[in-house]
Amino acid sequence: MNKFEIIEDLLQEVYDPDFPAIDIYNLGLIRDIKIEENYIQIIMTLTTPACPSADLIMNLVEQAINDEYPKDKVEVELTFDPLWSPDMIKDEDLKRMFE
C-alpha cells in the first residue's frame, strides 16, 4: 500500500461525533489529500460551517496521521466551497439514509 492509500485508510477511522456511524472519509468530508516529501495536507469540509465539533475533528485527523507518520508535518485545512451535502457521501447505502 502506498502512503496515499494508508492515509485514506487512517481517515476512515475518524468519525464526526454527529454522525458516529459513518467515518469522515465516506461521509464525504475529505476534499483532497496532498502529499509531499515530509508534508501532508488534508483539505476537508464539515457538514456545516457552524459545526461545534470542528476543532475536535480536525485534531483527530491530524492525530491519526501523526500517529502513523510522526516525522511528517500535517496540516488540516477547512473549506466550505462547495458546502457539504449528502450527495458527497461515498457509500450509496449510507447516502440513502439522507434521502
Detail the topology: elements first, then pairings.
Layout lengths: L2 H9 L18 E7 L2 E6 L9 H15 L4 E6 L13 H4 L4
Parallel strand pairs: 2-3
Antiparallel strand pairs: 1-2
Helix content: 25-40%
> Quaternary state, please?
single chain
Number of structural units classed as domains: 1
Mean pLDDT: 92
Strands side by side in the biggest sheet: 1-2-3
What is the strand tally? 3
- Which percent band covers the strand fraction? 15-25%
CATH class category: Alpha Beta
User: At the fourth CATH level, what is the homologous superfamily?
Assistant: Fe-S cluster assembly (FSCA)
Write structural notes for this entry.
The protein is of the alpha+beta class. It has a single domain, classed as GMP Synthetase, Chain A, domain 3, CATH 3.30.300.130. It has helices spanning 3-11, 54-68, 92-95, and strands at 30-36, 39-44, 73-78. A 3-stranded mixed β-sheet has the order 1-2-3, with helices on one face. Residues 7-77 form the MIP18 family-like domain. It comes from Candidatus Vampirococcus lugosii. Pfam families: FeS_assembly_P (PF01883). This is FeS assembly SUF system protein.
